[in-house]
Design brief:
Structural class: alpha/beta
Oligomer: single chain
Number of helices: 14
Order of helices and strands: HHEEEHEEEHEHEEHEHEHHEEHEEHHHH
Radius of gyration: 23 Å
Shape: globular
Helix content: 25-40%
Distance between the termini: 26 Å
Strand content: 15-25%
Length: 425
Amino acid sequence: MTSLRIIERGGDESSPGREPFEAIEARLRERLARGGDSAAVDAVDLILIQAVPHRASDIHFEPWRDSLTIRYRIDGILHDVAQLPREFHAWITTRLKVIARIATYHRDVPQDGRIEPDATPSGRAMRVSTFPTVNGEKVTVRMLDTPDGMLALDALGFDADLTGALQELIGRPSGTLLLTGPSSSGKTTTIYALLQAIVQSRDPAPHVVAIEDPVEYRMPKITQTEINPHTGLTYEEALRAVLRQDPEVIMLGEIRDPATAHAAIQAGLTGHLVISTIHSGTAAGVFTRLLDMGIEPFLIASSVTGVLAQRLVRKNCPACSAPVVPDERLCARFGVVPESGTFRAGSGCPNCEGIGFRGRTAVGELLMADETVAELILSRARTATIHRAAVVAGMTSLEDAALACAETGITTLDEMRRVLPAGMT
């Protein structure tokens, strides 16, 4: 699973002051030039601290032949923060591995670790991944939200009808709800919001078990475990074991193979509410993916209650966005005219660091598996046929959901083109 960054993160009154990237690089060079044991500690602390007010979801430490480049991913896009002399790469990498509790002597194999909130002055939990390259180890740090920062289901950005339908699906005692979308499309945060809504809406709280890879957020009243293929604890094995623990709700981080898919579908048929993710371009495409995995059509039609396909679009900066006339080619591509909405775009300002966007919101299409869809699944209908039937039944497509955001000035047509699946636009 990937962790979702939908609404603006960090930047509250308790966060450290946001510094321009040029100032961060200058301070890093100054600290590292001092040398000594504290140089790498101070440099890493600065990078991690500044990631919070900059609203970074990830930090990339990229070694090149003659430099170490540090980049923040902000609202889904990577931005260069600093380019440091290559000699500091080992210092910074070693410091990151120490606080992430990763073996410092292994440099030729990928490793994963976790930085606890009290390990750095940033006060944030982080996931760390190392990867060997020809230029040395590349390190990627994923910033994790604390449970207090988890979003309510109705704050993710979906329209009211879709949110209401999701609440209806998670209110059912059994069935399989699947989420789909590319990496960094917000699936993880949506799932956690769904689990939080389940726990808060039922009294007493149900027995909820989450099987993850890895556990990104520690949530109250939910039993969470991490898979460990090295010990044989795969998604499939963990799910089979969990079914003997008397669960009511099961969250499965990802359906990756036919065996796991079959186990998840079966669990949804035997009195459990199963929530999981699976990779596909659109909601209707999930059924084709399951069929390709060898799952029998009658099992899919009986178990899957709904499929949510989602994306994250960047929001126009509220401080610098202004009315614009959209490009004619984009209007033609999406079948709109400039007069059809209040189109806006950000020009770039200190508030958005010159980007023109600030924050992201979720857009999605929720395919409810009604009798018509079930019949199409049983007949192994094509993805396009299932999609058209769902639209006729009232489903708002991903394109239409994103277009509504553009026409109301929340985002731009160009941003739509960037995030929507190939071939959809």
